[in-house]
Amino acid sequence: MKIISFGDVHMATGNLTRMGEVFRDTDLIIVSGDLTNFGGVRDARKVLDDVRGACSRVLALPGNLDHREVTPFLESEGVALHGKGIVVDGVGIFGCGGSNITPFNTPTELTEDEIYETLKEGHAAVQGCRPLLMVCHTPPFQTKCDRIIGGKPVGSIAARRFIEEIKPDLCISGHIHESAATDVIGATTIINAGPFKGGGYVVIRADGSRLEAKLQFL
User: Fold this and answer.
1) pTM for this entry
2) CA–CA separation, 7 vs 197, rounded Å?
């Protein structure tokens, strides 16, 4: 199975038209949050429709810049990963959207306890499944994927704790635009593709019990 993941779309779906060859044999697209730019259902629907035009099978998370109404919308569309878990062709996929608390009072922010409980709820639906893919809009704390300009880490302590406890094979994140990077926590690979407008995306290949993931740029 081939999965393509990207996030921090913020309505800028233009790069989809440049990725025809990438999507040619893609089985699933995962959008890792921030479909909109402070938008609601109408904007989220437009982005989801554009993504479905590239691949009919989609899963998605809300980001902190998506209004809270986007979460039940994604659920109604059958694509939600926030607090959900699903097994796709043998791969257990679960997630948490929104972000940890920021200084900017963005629409969908969660406490660290809420992030942990949301991940726990999603993981419960795929518990015991391997390989295991965690999708968390906010990157785990203190990695190459959560550094703002100046180098300060601002990721989620709860997301890191959950990774250290559960040890998923892969964690896809986003949120911190300037930290498109790959890192590891123990045996877990962490990837932040950066904003979709910047051309970043993740190629994930599942082969039996293994996940191989690589950060790519257009």
Assistant:
1) 0.98
2) 9
